[in-house]
Design goal:
Helix content is about 35%, strand content about 25%. It is an alpha+beta fold and about 100 residues long.
Length: about 100
């Protein structure tokens, strides 16, 4: 499965479960957010937006920034969901991106 397909599937599934919450995917030793969640984070936090194959907005940050960044997002009125999406092997399904 292509990386865009894995991102789309994981993002769509988590958004269906958690609605308007910003979804932060735990990937290796950091976190990533996609699409409109990435754009929201880039507006509120000192993060740069990247794109995956010119179609998917992406921001990433290291684990040691999680508490500070989630506190700022909650203070700004956003709900947060931390996703630990894993495949049958136990590995994060988005880890190889």
């Amino acid at each position: 499965m292509k990386k865009e397909d894995r991102i789309n599937a994981a993002y769509t599934n988590e958004k269906a479960k958690h609605g308007n919450a910003i979804i932060l995917f735990h990937i290796g030793n950091g976190y990533e957010a996609y699409y409109s969640d990435a754009e929201t984070l880039a507006k509120l936090l000192p993060l740069r937006i990247y794109t995956v194959n010119k179609t998917i907005s992406l921001v990433r940050f290291p684990e040691n920034e999680l508490e500070q960044f989630t506190n700022r997002l909650v203070d700004a009125g956003h709900a947060i969901c931390i996703s630990e999406v894993r495949g049958t092997s136990g590995q994060h399904i988005l880890e190889s991106l």
